[in-house]
Amino acid sequence: MKKLIGLDKVKTAVFISGTGSNLKNLIKFSLKKNSPISINLVISNKKNAKGLKYVNQKKIEKKIINFIKTKESEKKILNLLIKKKIAFICLAGFMKILSNNFLKRFNGKVINIHPSLLPKYKGLNTHKRVLKNNEKFSGCTVHYVAARLDAGKIILQKKIKIAKTDKENTLKNKILREEHKLYPKAIKKIFN
Ligand code: GAR
């Protein structure tokens, strides 16, 4: 990825579907002087995604795109991204799969965070499956988004030990705390 020139931050869009704790964290990070990105647009496929409240608080532009028809939705998004001169996309709990065509247009500029040690446990219900398999470790991964689900090149990964007492919820929260540290670190790694 191209190095930052001068003090310009890279115009970034964050895509969400739900709670938005990673979005909240990325907004906080983006406002720091040493952050390479600014968040200029948030896209949600759900109109009542909880995460949208952070956007309202910080007066960031938001757009709800329902994704019922992927092709049309992506076209709308692309137009908006071009209009807003967005150069980078962070997926943060965005539960829709972007098409090959869309990814080609933003080649190498879309990243995602996933709550497992990829390539293990791609897809949904990660924590449940990890616990069911009696894994000793889990973690989170920031990776480039490729056409195949959760399969793009890994940027950074954090491993954590699973406690015997961990349930789906405690593991989820433990990993979320790590996600909030890992996502900004990965973004810095890309641009510095
Ligand atoms: C996070 O744990 C993120 O890693 C996961 O959804 C959660 C969103 O939480 N993403 C995926 O599973 C993508 N395949 P948040 O809305 O509080 O950021």
Task: Provide an overview of this structure.
With 192 residues, the protein is α/β, with parallel strands linked by helices. The chain is built from six helices and seven strands. The protein has helices at residues 21-30, 52-58, 70-83, 100-105, 126-132, 168-191; strands spanning 10-16, 37-44, 61-64, 88-91, 110-114, 137-144, 154-161. The radius of gyration is 16 Å and the shape is globular. The protein starts with 9 loop residues before the first strand and ends with a helix. 34% of the residues are buried. Residues 18-22, 51, 92-93, 113-115, 176, 179 line the site of glycinamide ribonucleotide (GAR).
Protein topology:
Elements: E1 10-16, H1 21-30, E2 37-44, H2 52-58, E3 61-64, H3 70-83, E4 88-91, H4 100-105, E5 110-114, H5 126-132, E6 137-144, E7 154-161, H6 168-191
Parallel strand pairs: 1-2, 1-4, 2-3, 4-5
Antiparallel strand pairs: 5-6, 6-7
Residues 18-22, 51, 92-93, 113-115, 176, 179 line the site of glycinamide ribonucleotide.
Care to give the gist of this entry?
With about 190 residues, this protein is of the alpha/beta class.
Q: Which features characterize this protein?
A:
single chain, 192 residues, alpha/beta, seven-stranded mixed beta sheet, globular, binds glycinamide ribonucleotide
Give the terminus-to-terminus CA distance. Answer: 9 Å
Q: What class do helices, strands and sheet pairing give?
A: alpha/beta
Report mean pLDDT, rounded to a whole number: 94
> What radius of gyration results from the CA coordinates?
16 Å
Shape summary: globular
Query: Could you state the oligomeric state of the chains shown?
Result: single chain
Low-pLDDT residue spans: none
- Strands side by side in the biggest sheet: 3-2-1-4-5-6-7
Query: What's the number of helices?
Result: 6
Proportion in helices = 25-40%
**Main β-sheet, in a few words?**
7 strands, mixed
Please write the string of helix (H) and strand (E) elements: EHEHEHEHEHEEH
Number of beta strands: 7
Ligands and ions found: glycinamide ribonucleotide
% residues in beta strands:
15-25%
